[in-house]
Amino acid sequence: MSNSPLQQLHALGQSIWLDYIHTDLMSSGELQTLIERDALQGMTSNPAIFEQAIAKSDAYDERIRDLVKAKPDLDANGLFVELALIDIAAAADILKPVWANSRGDDGMVSLEVNPELAHDRDGTIAEALSLHARLDRPNVMIKVPGTKAGVEAFEELTSKGVSVNVTLLFSVERYREIAAAYIRGLSRRLAAGQDVSAIGSVASFFISRVDSAVDAELESMTGTATHPMKSTIAVANAKVAWGHYQNLFGGSAWAPLAEAGALPQRLLWASTGTKNPDLPLTHYIDTLIGADTVNTVPPATLDAYREAGEPAATLDQGVEEASRAVASLSSLGINLNAITDTLEAQGISSFQDAFTRLLAAIDSKRSALS
Questions:
Q1: CA–CA dist 351, 94 (Å, integer)
Q2: Collapsing DSSP states into helix, strand and coil, what is residue 291?
Q3: CA-angle at 242, arms to 145 and 147, nearest 5°
């Protein structure tokens, strides 16, 4: 399988992570197969993924029953944390050889803090530190949403040596804030004489939801569903962010950290499953292939790329054109900043809703199983 499309992506310097988790993935050996066959380099999870895994299958029922017997005072959130820690630890252990063979920023598994803490700096820090300590594995990232409070929490966590996946990034400006916070957090560690070489971080920049929102605005503003800019702005927005990545991590502020062994915070393309049925499933892989980036994909997209992917470096193509395309939106009466602000709020709300449903399902299962 050395010439498979997914293996070729790895050879081009892009890491593919799986945007999915389920206990069966680890226990069946499927995760190990994905690593060996497809050069899978990591995994991400979020509240919606855990809702699908725990609430909508019976695979966790025995574990819930055992936890209720062993720890009867646990509430639904406490039960979820215990279940999630088991899965994340199992996945991290399987992926640890990948981490050991990387620079120290692949082979990672991400676990998100409670989405109710999205605007709570101190609460986010406390929960992230607790999850980090309980998992106690070098190849685990704690996921923090890229809200204003999340930017502050991320800097503090980085300064404390926690590897963080900053999620729900839609705007280039918020991405720049996150990248600057990473540099500040590492600089604080370095100034305190602490190691900066054992920290990995990614900035999860969301893709498809931007196209869905902008396409709706294009149709509303122009009266046509076939505007030439349709389904192009999400990739253009990502390329603008990538240009800033190159400047930030190639500049003078980064140089002393690089000399101390620090790893740059890679851009991770998230929400890469297509929502426009006119686009191929592999669209948001094909258009964003570049070295030192990550693409986290749902299982269906991974399968599609394995079968029909055509790897070629595309991220560095048309960067200036991408900037012009993003800038031209204002002339059409479209405010991209307003769109990305709305998408951030909607993303947080969506994860909060999924988490609420998950806890309700766990409560229901506890009653039925006890």
A1: 27
A2: coil
A3: 15
What is the distance between the alpha carbons of residues 44 and 33, in angstroms, rounded to a whole number?
Answer: 17
Q: How many CB atoms neighbour CB 313 within 10 A?
A: 12
Whether the full predicted model's pTM is greater than 0.90, yes or no, is yes
Residue-wise pLDDT tens digits, 142-191: 999 999 999 999 999 999 999 999 999 999 999 999 999 999 999 999 99
- Give how far Cα 2 sits from Cα of 13, 34, 42, 57, 303, Å: 15, 13, 19, 35, 16
For the beta carbon of residue 4, count every other beta carbon within 10 angstroms. Answer: 17
Residues annotated as part of the active site:
143
Structure tokens at 104: 């120290």
CA–CA dist 77, 343 (Å, integer): 26
Identify whether the C-beta of residue 297 lies closer than 8 Å to the C-beta of residue 305: yes
In the chain the first and final C-alpha atoms are separated, in Å, by: 47
Within the chain, where are the H helices? 5-11, 23-27, 30-38, 47-50, 61-70, 76-100, 121-135, 148-159, 172-191, 208-222, 233-248, 255-259, 283-286, 299-308, 319-328, 336-369
State the Cα–Cα distance between residues 261 and 47, nearest whole angstrom: 33
Distance (Å) of CA 181 to CA 153, 163, 214, 332, 344: 9, 13, 28, 33, 19
Give per-residue pLDDT as tens, 73-99: 999 999 999 999 999 999 999 999 999
SS3 150: helix
Phi-psi region of 24 (alpha: psi -120 to 50; beta: other; left: phi over 0): alpha
Type of residue at 230: K
CB distance 41 to 200 below 8 Å:
no
Give dist(CA 225, CA 363) in Å, integer: 45
201 DSSP assignment:
E
8-state DSSP, 115: G
Residue ranges of domains in the chain, CATH in brackets: 5-369 (3.20.20.70)
CA separation for the pair 178, 168 (Å, rounded): 11
